[in-house]
Structure formats: C-alpha cells, structure tokens
Amino acid sequence: MKRKSDSNFVFWLFLAPVLFAFAMVIVVPFILGVYYSFTTWSSSARVGDGTRFVGLKNYVESLADPAFAYSFIITIGYTVINMAVINMAALALALLVTTKIKLRNLYRAGFFIPNLIGGLILGYVWQFIFNNAMPSLGTMLGFTSWADPSNLILASNIKAIGAIIAAGSWQYAGYIMVIYVAAIENVPQELHEAAQIDGATALRRLFVITIPLAAQAFTITLFLTLVQSFKQFDVNVSLTNGGPSTMFMGKPIFGTELLALNIYDTAFLSNNLAMGQARAVIFFLVLAMVALVQVSLNKKREIEL
User: Minimal CA–CA distance to 292: which of 241, 239, 242, 222?
Assistant: First the structure.
C-alpha cells in the first residue's frame, strides 16, 4: 500500500507542472473571459475600475447584430464546403500515393509541405496570385477580362470566399492526407487481393473494403477539418481582411468576415472586449456542440461499418 501511495505521489508530482500551465493558460483565462462577457470591460478600463455588470446585454446585442449574424451564416457555409473539399482532395491524394507509382514518397512530402507554411504568409502569397499573377497571365494569354479590376477574384465576396477555401484547402489537404495514408496502409492487402480475384473493380474495393476499414480515420479527419474551418482566421486576415463589403439586413458589412475575424474586429478594432468575449463564448458553445454531434454520429457510423 505504501509503494502504491508513493507511486501516486510521484505521478502527480511529474504531472503538476503541466496541470499548472494548462490551468494558467486555458482554464483561468476561459473562466475570466466568461465573467468579462457579462460586463462592460474594455481595453481602456482597468480591471474593476469602471467595469459594470450588465448581464446578458452583450449576448443579446451580438445576436441582434447583422454583421455577427452574417459572419455566422457564411462561416457555416464555408465550413461545410471546406470540409468537403479538403477531405475529398486529401483522400484522392492518399489513394494516389498509396499505389505503386514511382517517387510516391517524394509526392507525399510535396503534398505535405504547404501545411508547413504559416497561414498569414500563405494568405499574402495567394493574394499576390489572385491580384497580380492571374491578371498578368490573362493579359499574356489574351484574356483581357482577367485584368479588369472589377473581375478580380477578391473583388467579389462570393469569389473571395471561394479563394479562402482554395488557399486553405491547398494548405491543409496534405496534413489530412497523412492520416488517410496511415489508415489505408493498415487495411490488410489480402482482402484487396481476394476481392480482385472475385472480380471486384477498384472503385468497388474502395467503397466495400478501404472506406469501411478506415472509418476511424474519417472520424478524426472530419473533426479536425470541422474545427480548423470554424476557427479560420489567419488566411482570412491576410487574404481578404474581411473585404469586400456587402449589404446584409440593410447594413453595410464585410463580405468575407468569418466568425473568428468578426470576434477579433469587435474586441480590438471596435475596442469592445466584453462584447467580443461574449461572441467568443457563443462561438465556443456552438463549436463544442457541433463537434460533439459530429464525433458521436461518426462513432455510430464506425460501428455500422
């Protein structure tokens, strides 16, 4: 009994620094943030000085704000499309690099490299491509409409959202590909050989053998892409910075301002930290609920497969 007690003490002793760091960086700021969301706190006021408790006022005003509602809507649409694009591209790349093609390891590294580029730098690179490289290429090829400022991809809010999806997918698909590769390579090759002898086509083997046996990977990748899409910020900032503007509910707003950027602009550009924190709490609750539902559904699907 004494040895077990000593072992537990050593265990918690080694774990204590990590728990302390987690509490100071995650738990305590989260609790303080929830508290500040019910106040009038701003960056110009010291804690406890001029800060009043206002209850649910910040939440009610946030939900009534057309800009916040618009950001919520386009973030949901962006998330659905981005998840589909990233996972389909990643699965296609994984199937490609798990075949017997030459230099497949080189292809794996090449597809993964974009994930190593920071989101801010990536956004500026793609901004240059859309605003400079493509118009110049269009002029060279005789497509003068490409050089028209009104026809630029980032000049339209719908096209600009598509540009964010393209840039983000190009960056993240290689990372998700690695997860699919690991799952596909764990599928017993004997099953493919037996199915091939029975006359099953490659497409048939994909849907009957590969996908069911790699179902756990889909749970992981869908969760990762869901969270990554909902939290998209850096590419949004550097590529469009929320522009161009559009009209929603009779109010001019940023046309590509996703939810994370809307929270940032509310807190730091409008100097309303309390309302920005309230929106962050709403964002956290919605994301947590959606993620739990998604994981639960995928787990049930795994059992069925």
Answer: 222
For the entire predicted model, the pTM comes to: 0.89
AA identity, residue 104: R
Q: In a 10 Å sphere around its CB, with 0-12 CB exposed, 13-18 middle and 19+ buried, how is residue 163 labelled?
A: buried
pLDDT digits (tens, 9 = 90+) for 230-265: 999 999 999 999 989 899 988 999 999 999 999 999
Helix (H, G, I), strand (E, B) or coil at 251: strand
Among 201, 223, 202, which Cα is nearest to 296's?
223
Give 87-139 pLDDT, tens digit per residue. 999 999 999 999 888 888 899 999 999 999 988 999 999 999 999 998 888 88
**pLDDT tens for residues 31-85?**
999 999 999 887 665 555 567 889 999 999 999 999 999 999 999 999 999 999 9
DSSP state letter for 272: -
CATH placement of domain 67-304:
1.10.3720.10
User: Is the Cβ–Cβ distance between 90 and 176 less than 8 Å?
Assistant: yes
Q: ω before 244 within 30° of 0 (cis)?
A: yes
Cα angle, residue 113 at apex, residues 107 and 288 outer, rounded to 5°:
115
Query: How far, in Å, CA of 177 to CA of 196, rounded?
Result: 25
CB 184 within 8 A of CB 90: no
Q: What is the residue-wise DSSP string for 120-163? A: HHHHHHHHHIIIIIHHHHHHHHT-GGGG-GGG-GGGSHHHHHHH
The contacts found for 92-101 with CB under 8 angstroms, 24 or more apart, are: 93/173, 93/174, 93/177, 93/180, 94/177, 94/180, 94/181, 94/184, 95/180, 95/184, 95/206, 97/177, 97/181, 98/181, 98/184, 98/185
- CA dist., res. 155 & res. 134, Å (int): 13
